[in-house]
Structure formats: structure tokens, C-alpha cells
Amino acid sequence: MSTGTRPTLLRRLRDASDSMAWEEFFACYWSTVYGYARHRGCSEHTAEEVVQDVMLKVFQQRDVFRYDPARGRFRDWLHRVVCNGIAERRRRPSERVRAIGGARGNGDLEGIDAAPAPDAAWETAFEQALLGALLDAIRRESNPRDFVAFELITLQGRRPAEVARITGMTRNLVYKARRKIMERLRELSGSYAHDGRLCREVRAALACRPAPAVERSLTDRIEKTMREN
Q1: Distance between CA 32 and CA 28 in Å, rounded?
Q2: 42-52 b/e with 16+ CB inside 10 Å = b?
Q3: Is 102 exposed, middle or buried (0-12, 13-18, 19+ CB in 10 A)?
Q4: Are 167 and 70 contacting, i.e. CB atoms less than 8 angstroms apart?
Q5: What is the pLDDT of residues 6-53, one digit of tens each?
Q6: Which of 4, 27, 49, 148 is such that its CA lies 20 to 30 A from the CA of 213?
Q7: pLDDT of residue 200 exceeding 90
Q8: CA–CA gap between residue 135 and residue 63 (Å, rounded)
Q9: How far is CA 21 from CA 58, 126, 157, in A?
Q10: DSSP 71
């Protein structure tokens, strides 16, 4: 992704303000949809189905890849699409929506005809997914060993001497790698860079990411669906 159109990549992703390829859209937002569906009581299987439904709807409305701010906040529009996707799944007699922890969903769940206003859980899921996408973008453009050193020292809290031993780098190179990637994070992340939350928020985003197997399953499922449509 080019970062020249807006001041930060994170702002671009929040607003969907620049044209995005389908693959970029899926990579940035699928975990938001999945995580929120799980929060709303969907089983893992049903959450995957909701992601598929939502992504197909977005795919069919191609203009979303350059979102019009006059329509309101992009994240609010996506929230409505996700809530409608969850509601549609709940209408189907064959679906079994279960609360996290195994309890079966019941009539106390949110109404299916009108999407509730975005809540704190949605805002958190949205921001965490975007920070994860931001880190993925930096990983792709960085020297692999530098990024491993950054991950170990900044995200996992390893000591510089231990990181140097693991990576085969000198401690001086470990510090340089960390500084270089942190500077790139601050450049792309915008507001987080100004209040000291950046590393904490990135760690939280990584901790909440769905398992790699979920992403592989969804990627295969989505690719098959797109070919059929």
C-alpha cells in the first residue's frame, strides 16, 4: 500500500479513504468481523460463516474500496453490515449460535432487525485489527532478522543480550533494528505515537488475533466463494 495520500496508514485504514484491492481489504478487516461475531455469541464455525457473508456483501459493493465520508464513518457502516450478517445467520433454523464458553444463545441476544449502535467491543476489535494490519505491513517491508529482533525485544520483552544470542546479531544491531522499526511504527500509526500507548496496543492486538488455522480456513473458503460469484 502506498502511504503518500494520507498522513498515516492507520488513518487510511480507519476511513477506507483510499482505493483498496480486495486482498488488502480482506487482510485488514476479516479479523475484526470474526472477533466481533465471537463477542456477540457466535461459535467459531458461525463466526467464519459471518465473515464469509460480510466479505461477499462487501465484494459485491465494490465502491466501498474508496469510501465516501459523506455516508458517515466507514467503521459504522461496516458494523451495520456485520450485525446484519449475524442477524441473518440467527434467522436460519440450522444455525446454532452459542455464547463464548459453550452456553447456547437465547432471546436476550440483540434484536436481529436493527443493528445496535457500535459499542466498545466493536471499537476495540476494529482498532486491534488495524494495528495488526499495520504491523503486517511493516513486517513485509523490513529485513526479516531486524523484525524478529524487534518482536523479541519490544513485543515479547526479551533482554537485548538474549535477543542478540537468538538472532546472531550484536546488541548494537539489536538496538538499531528496534529503533528503526519503532520509528516506522510511529510514522504510520499516528495518534498512538503521541501518548505512549503504541507498543501496549500492538501487543494487545497480537494477543487477540485469531489462530492461524482460522485465517487459512477463511482464506480458502472466501477464495472458493469469490470464484463462484
Answers
A1: 8
A2: bbbebbbbbbb
A3: exposed
A4: no
A5: 335 556 666 665 556 667 778 888 888 998 999 888 988 899 999 988
A6: 148
A7: no
A8: 26
A9: 12, 19, 35
A10: G
User: Residues 214, 34: contact at Cβ < 8 Å?
Assistant: yes
Q: Are 90 and 105 in contact (CB under 8 A)?
A: yes
Q: Cell numbers at residue 67, please?
A: 469510501
What is the number of helices (H) and of strands (E) in the chain? Answer: 10, 0
- pLDDT per position as a tens digit, 124-153: 888 888 888 888 889 999 999 999 999 999
What single string gives the DSSP state of each residue in 12-67?
HHHHT-S---HHHHHHHHHHHHHHHHHHTT--HHHHHHHHHHHHHHHHHSGGGGG-
Residue type, 38: R
Q: Which helix H or strand E contains 150, and what residues bound it? A: helix 144-150
